[in-house]
Amino acid sequence: MKIAILPGDGIGPEIVEQAVRVLNSLDEKFELESAPVGGAGYEAHGHPLPEGTLKLAKEADAVLFGAVGDWKYDKLDRPLRPEQAILGLRKNLNLFANLRPAILYPELAGASTLKPEVVSGLDILIIRELTGDIYFGQPRGVRECPDGPFKGEREGFDTMRYAETEIRRIAHVAFQAARKRDKRLTSVDKANVLETFQFWKDIVTDVHKEYPDVALDHMYVDNAAMQLVRAPKKFDVIVTGNMFGDILSDAAAMLTGSIGMLPSASLDANNKGLYEPSHGSAPDIAGKGVANPLATILSAAMMLRFSLNKAEQADRIESAVKKVLAQGLRTPDIYEDGTTKVGTKEMGDAVVKALA
Amino acid sequence: MKIAILPGDGIGPEIVEQAVRVLNSLDEKFELESAPVGGAGYEAHGHPLPEGTLKLAKEADAVLFGAVGDWKYDKLDRPLRPEQAILGLRKNLNLFANLRPAILYPELAGASTLKPEVVSGLDILIIRELTGDIYFGQPRGVRECPDGPFKGEREGFDTMRYAETEIRRIAHVAFQAARKRDKRLTSVDKANVLETFQFWKDIVTDVHKEYPDVALDHMYVDNAAMQLVRAPKKFDVIVTGNMFGDILSDAAAMLTGSIGMLPSASLDANNKGLYEPSHGSAPDIAGKGVANPLATILSAAMMLRFSLNKAEQADRIESAVKKVLAQGLRTPDIYEDGTTKVGTKEMGDAVVKALA
Ligand SMILES: CC(C)[C@H](C(=O)O)[C@@H](O)C(=O)O
Ligand SMILES: CC(C)[C@H](C(=O)O)[C@@H](O)C(=O)O
Question: What EC number(s) would the UniProt record show (chains A, B) (predicted)?
Fold first, then answer.
């Protein structure tokens, strides 16, 4: 089985390095091949998603991705900016289903800005549609305003859209995921204002007929943002569109206070996927050896489970991570009095050791 | 000076009643005229925003609005649903600037789901553009998908758009508001993905030249949602578009844990405005006499300050509200051990008494 390793920018290379060590210490053999992406892709080949990188990602059975972005690329034209790499990979690989667990490890409850009783034991799964919506809808651009009170002046515009098939397939992913959990699904929309999301709501309601064992409710996105702050534990699985999912999944991750712990998976229709930590490239701490590699290591575990059919190995990695937390090891982002502060590599060492 | 009183649905009538009592107890005379809106408008005249109600709102110097919506109207066609009234009022009255303070009263710090050190003393102002963006952009609807892999099947679609003038005028409101506060403005966009918001960012940056005394920073909406949870006190004024503002202003309100305390103002270019509590119509507790009238009373204070040029009377109301909180009076939504639980009318009585 071939895994494409795309470390990217900022802390990407150092956290991916630890995940690779973990993969290599399993008693399975994987073919790992690296390629530059994001700013690193631009430096090497003049493009954030170089042709060779895209080809490798397409050929591989799964992609392990670090993070992309650095302030130094902020002045590039948009098509050359690092984040275009991740959008390009999603679109070219048809990775329409983004799974983002927001889990609060009991040992890390203190890291949250929310009161312990509100978040302890938090375990929700946000499923974000990832290849449709206003992210890719055409037409878009800056044009002369065609009508209305501002006719003739410049306006920026974008198109939000969802086709029936796109909604159906993400709804199926969500109902099936809910089935494996507490059997409750919240579909987040803005059907009171947007035609796209009235349509979304209608289709999700229709797909629900095939999953009578799952309880479905619908919530407006503004209310969902409130309920995540008010009573996040009431959610089980949330499914929503690309734009709302971008906002809500980050808010949910931050509820835990330990975003350095949260993995993510982006899957196509055949469970091929791209796996990356939920956090960003953190250029401010890059190269300092202090970044938390656990989200990337847990992303590798998700990869084993969803794309490589090695659930047992995934379980082993997840147990090893729990073990190092129980041992009191903490990178600076999750450090608290009474625990042991370690760096990126030491944390990787500890996971490898716990696996043995 | 004429004030249109639009109580609406659910708890709307009972909370507006208390705000009206407060207004009547000032030593200023206002002409108050009521009209039905939302579900009440539909019951009385077959439309959520009856012609007479719109006419009254247009003629008046300001509008005091309760809340609209009730599950019993969920099955009506969209144009007849209660929330269309509020969208119609915003659009017809050109109320493009929505001001939503998120303030945590020291006495109510315990009501928040966030740790006291994270939110105590919170005082941020969210300025949401209210008449543009994907809320009103054309075209929108359900159509046959014109191209791409889903060509020919049904798709829901909407248009996001902002004309230059729309961005400039809300940016001016925001910079001016920041000037009266801590002189820091965060413009929230998604310029890395959306053309509309790259344009937004460019125009806000341009308007900034006229306000060199205000510090401006730009933040992506997903990051803003995270920072609101992580460190909300770092914000002073936030400005954003209609859709992102809908989500972020509700999240920010919920950080306080006391959304029953938060007023809002929606202003046109001449400071005529509509004033309403940030919370909804709460049909589940309607008519029980337990709703918190303070957000509506504080909305009336905002009305006196922004539209009616009676800053002194506004100050008096705000002081009276602080006084009743200091007296320990609490409606059930903000009740804690050791305080005195009161109903809607008793809370109104207490504010009127504190004003005397
Ligand atoms: C970098 C950006 C384009 C991206 C997105 O908006 O999807 C990021 O925020 C994410 O959530 O992966
Ligand atoms: C009721 C709804 C249309 C409205 C909106 O989305 O603007 C509400 O959520 C608000 O924020 O006032």
Answer: 1.1.1.85
Is residue A50 in a domain? yes
Question: Does residue A251 share a domain with residue A191?
Answer: yes
Ligand 2 centre to CA of A225 (Å) is 13
Interface contact flag, B158 A155, Cβ < 8 Å: no
Using a CB-CB cut-off of 8 Å, the residues of chain A touching B222 are 246-247, 249-250
State whether B197 and B316 are in the same domain.
Answer: no
- Asked whether residue B29 falls in the same domain as residue B65, the answer is yes
Contacts of A114 in chain B (CB under 8 A): 113-115, 229
The pLDDT of residue B208 is 98
Token pair, residue B36, equals 């039905």
Q: CB atoms < 10 A from the CB of A77, how many?
A: 7
A246 inside 8 A of chain B by CB: yes
Specify the pLDDT at position A289: 97
Residues B248 and B281 in one domain: no
pLDDT tens-digit series, residues A74-130: 889 989 999 999 999 999 999 999 999 999 999 998 999 999 999 999 999 999 999
How far is residue A29's CA from residue B285's CA, in Å, rounded to a whole number?
A: 61
Could you read off the pLDDT of A179-205 as tens digits, one per residue?
999 999 999 999 999 999 999 999 999
A residues 125-144 lying closer than 8 A (beta carbon) to B? 134-135, 137-138, 140-142
Q: Are A331 and A292 in contact (CB under 8 A)?
A: yes
- How does pLDDT run across A232-285, given as a tens digit for each residue? 999 999 999 999 999 999 999 999 999 999 999 999 999 999 999 999 999 999
Task: For chain B, say whether A80 makes contact (Cβ under 8 Å).
Answer: no
Distance, CA of A201 to CA of A346 (rounded, Å):
47
Min Cα–Cα distance to chain B from A349, Å? 30
Evaluate if residue B154 carries a pLDDT over 90: yes
Residues A144 and A88 in one domain: no
| Same domain, yes or no: B247 and B268 | no
CATH of the domain at B309: 3.40.718.10
Residue (of B336, B60, B78, A31) closest to B52 by Cα position: B60
State residue B159's pLDDT score.
Answer: 98
Compute the distance from residue A189 Cα to the ligand 2 centre, in Å: 13
- Tell me which residues of chain A, numbers 15 to 34, contact chain B at a CB-CB cutoff of 8 Å: none
Set of chain B residues whose Cβ sits within 8 Å of the Cβ of A229: 113-114, 229, 251, 254-255
Residue A255 contacts B, CB cutoff 8 Å: yes
Residue A304 falls inside a structural domain: yes
Closest C-alpha among A80, A65, A97, A57 to residue A300: A65
The CA distances from residue A172 to A190, A210, A239, in Å, are 20, 9, 10
Cα A348 → chain centroid: 21
Kindly state whether residue A296 falls inside one of the protein's structural domains.
yes
Parent domain of A284: 1-97+262-356
- With respect to residue A288, please indicate whether it lies within any of the assigned structural domains: yes
Q: How confident is the model at residue A342 (pLDDT cuts 50, 70, 90)?
A: very high
Same domain, residue pair A293 and A343: yes
Whether residue B128 is found in the same domain as residue B249: yes
- Model's pTM, two decimal places? 0.97
Place B74 in a pLDDT band, splitting at 50, 70 and 90.
confident
Q: Give the residue numbers of B annotated as catalytic, written as ranges.
A: 135, 190, 222, 246, 250
- Domain boundary residue among A255, A270, A305? A255
Q: How many domains does chain A have?
A: 2
Residue labelled with tokens 């055949």: A270
Question: A274 - beta bridge partners?
Answer: A63, A266
